[in-house]
Each structure stands twice: as C-alpha cells, then as structure tokens.
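Write out this protein's structure.
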Amino acid sequence: MLVSLQIRNFALIDAATIEFGEGLNILSGETGSGKSILVQALEVLLGGRGSSDLIRQGEEEAEISGLFATNGEEKSLRRVISRSGKNRAYVNERPVPVATLEEVAEGLVDLASQNEHQILLNSEKHLGLLDAYAGLTEDLQEYRHVLSDYRSVRYEREALEAREREARDKEEFLRFQLRELSEAKIQLGEEEALQTEKSVLKNVVRLGDLCTRGEEALEAGEDSVSERLVRLEKEMRQTAAIDPLFLELSNLLEEGSCQIQEVSRRLRDYAQRLSSDPERLQEMEDRLALISRLKKKHGGSVEALLKNEEEFKRSLGLLDHFQEEIAKVDRRLEDLARRLVEKAKELSKRRQKAARGLSQEVEGELKDLGLPSAKFEFELRRLDRGLFENQGRWFGECGVDGGELLIAPNPGEGLHPLAKIASGGEVSRVFLAIKKVLGETRSTETCVFDEVDVGIGGRVAEVIGRNLSQLAAKKQVVCITHLPQIACYADHHFVIQKKTEQGRTLTRVRLLETEQREQEIARMLGGLRITEQAMAHAREMLRTAHQRHHSHG
C-alpha cells in the first residue's frame, strides 16, 4: 500500500507530506484547490512524463517521493524533475532509468485518472479492458513480436519488388553504362603512366639534346670526365707505393668511373629510343580525354569509376536473381503468417471466454451500484479494417479482434453501445464496476480514483461511496471527490486548500479530525455559509456511513 507521499516544488505545492492509511483515503477540497495536482504528482512518481512546466515558479527542481509497503517490505520511489533537463529516478535510493521505475511501480498502484475514465467513451480502447481482465499481457507481447517480424519481412519484399522495378526500368541504361566502362578497359595507374609518356613525347628535342650533351661531357668528348678520371686513377695507383691510402682512393675512383660509364650508356640508350611520334601523342591525348570524361561521369576518380563498373555488374546480375530472392522472402512470410494466425486464434479464444466472465461480473457489480436491471455485455467481433489483410482476416496491433462495451440500463431495452447511450452517472458506475472487477484480477494493493464521481450525485453518489468502502475493505483506496455522499465513507479524510502567502499561491494538505470532518462534509453539502442544519446533516451522514460500513464488514 501507499504509506506516504512527499511533494516539493511541484505546481502550486511548495512542500507537502501525506501519510496515508489502510482502507478508504478521501481527498476533498474546493474547486481549483489543487486536488488533481496530487494525482498528477503521483502519476509522475509512477513513471509518467515529467515536464519542466510542472516545476513551481521560481524553483529549479521539483521532487516527488513515495513510500510503499508490499509483501511485508518497504519500497521507496523518487523522481526529480529539473529545468536543466537532467531528470532523475530512484528506486530504494538507487538511480535507475525511468523505464525501470515505471516497471517497479506497475505492481504497486492501479491509478484511474480522469483520462482513463474517458476510455469508456472510446470504443477503440475497450479491447484493452478485456485483455487486462483476461491477463493477456504476455500473449499480446508474443503476438506483437511475430507481427513486427511479419511486417518487417513484408517491407523487405516490397523493397525487393521496388528494386526490381527500378532495375528493370534502368536496365538498358545500366547496360549502356557498363558497356562504356567495359570497353574502355581503364586500369589503375594507367592515367599517371600516360601523363608521363605524353610529357616525354612533347619534350623529345629537349630530352635528346640533354642526352647528347651529357654523353659528350661524360665520355665521348675530348678531355671527357671519364678520360680525366682514368688518368687520375692511374696516377693514384702508382703513388700507392708511397702511401697505401691512395690505393683505396684509386679504387673509389674506379667505381665512380664505372658509374659514369653506366650513366653515359643509359643516356645513349634513352636517346636512341626517343622519337617524335605525333600519332602516338594524339592517341594518348584521346585516351586521357576519355578517362577524364568517364571520371567526371562516375565519381571523379578512377577508383570510383571502377567501383561503379562493379556495381553495374552486380545490379544487372541481380535481375536474374530477384524472383529467386522474392521466393525466399515469400517462404518466410508464409511461416510468419501461419504463426500470426495461430497467435491471433489463441488470443480470440481466450477473449471469448473472458468476455463472458467480464460481462457477468460487471453486471453483478452494477446491481450493487444501483442498476439492478442493467444488462451488460462485452461484444467481441472481427476487425473490418486493420494494418493489413491476410487470408480474409484483417490483422491489427492486438490481433484480429475488436470489441465494444454494450449496456441496457433499464429493463425492456436492448443492448446498445455504452459510449452512445449511457448517462454520466451510468458511465461512472460502469467505470467503478470495471475497476473493481479488474482490481480482483490484479495484485496491486492500492487503487487511486481521480473524481470517479463526475456527472453523478444524490443516491447514485451514495451507492458509489458504499462500493468504494467495500473495495477498501480488500485493498487500499485513494479517492479524490467533491461529493459528501462519498467522502463520508472515508477511513482517512484529507482536505486540500489553496492559500495565498506573501504574494504566492500555495496548496496545503491536512488530515481531518472528527469535528473537522463534520465541517468539511457540511461545506461539501453546499452553501456559502455552514449552518447548524448543514452540520447536523453532515453528522448524520457520517453516522449512517459508519453504521453501514460496519454492518457490511
């Protein structure tokens, strides 16, 4: 159960601590006092969205913490919302992701907010109520896992077909592109080699002249370098008898002479190979122009050009394999479709059984809620639209089923959609009946109701109050209400008040003692001024509720 709730700098609340008790905990207060802020704070604590808009004006952080007692152990949850966006969550003071906190909180509190009340008026949400009653959470997860796989493979097939269509449309162009590249037979490094050869051909005269002058200077001319080195080497060798060092130097000169001869020979050979060839030069110019054009067309480099050539080959090769790939995908689709149908059938089977049980139990609760002749039924039906159709069935996120709550509030009337014919009081009673039935199937020890009394009053309100008291005998109930007929059944009654202190609006929460409860019930009965008659009425309501509570127990 929820033992305590601490709130700091949240909306209009600067600081509040509420110590809840077992049984029925009622929170009341004037309109606009901030009753729903408490439920909003509890929603955030349990993993709901924490926006910086909820932080009290002038503060940097809001903090909500709760202490829960479950299975003989205490468990604490805490959320911190920061304007900086660095929101934090804690379980037993250990930092955790919000998703982890939400998972822990799910087993602690069953929170029925005003938004959840509206589910009854939206038939598309009704199937979720049946699934909660039937305990289909894990089965739905399994179905959705297969559904996700099925949809992924369908998208894969569609993508394959689109690629095939695109490839077929571009086939002629691809073949032209590939033929152009294949016939060009461009090689890595070819462009650089051609540039070098082109440069040589354009400079034949200059290179030939250099070779001639070099050969003459080194070896062919009078008093060439080679001749002078030979004479010097001979003289040093003769001098070696005087100093052996000159023998070593003469050997080095001999080596140098050999290298000079090699340079001269290579210059001569190079000059012999040189020839002015205008045709070859034009051929190279044309080849380089072709490479340049294809580079611009295919990525700006020879590497990109060659990569495109391989990609064109692969794309054209795939044309012969698309049908084979599509056939493989179809086999996977058939297997997933079979599993999907099996999962959907199992869900439908369990829902059909659960629909009968839910209808009977809710109808029984409605009798206790002042609708003794009401008929209630959960109508289960096949989807007539969905995500996709397979074998004549429409599949949706929850299977092949849709559903709607039907009611006949009065004898002699046929069953009609709840959302279309029920009054506000009837909707509130159906909501409470469903929550009571679902509460019996859930292990949560605390139920929270945010203004379950919307649109009702008088005798109906008293019936709902009595039923909330009966539910509170089995588990802790926290209820926000503006009706005295409900508040008088409280085991613990808190009042929420809005005050102005030092120019700031504050929301305060306090637990009422017996006399204070009488005054609050009298205020809730109406009127600008609490009269002695209202006080007497309040005391009588509290006395009657107390007697009924104990007679029922």
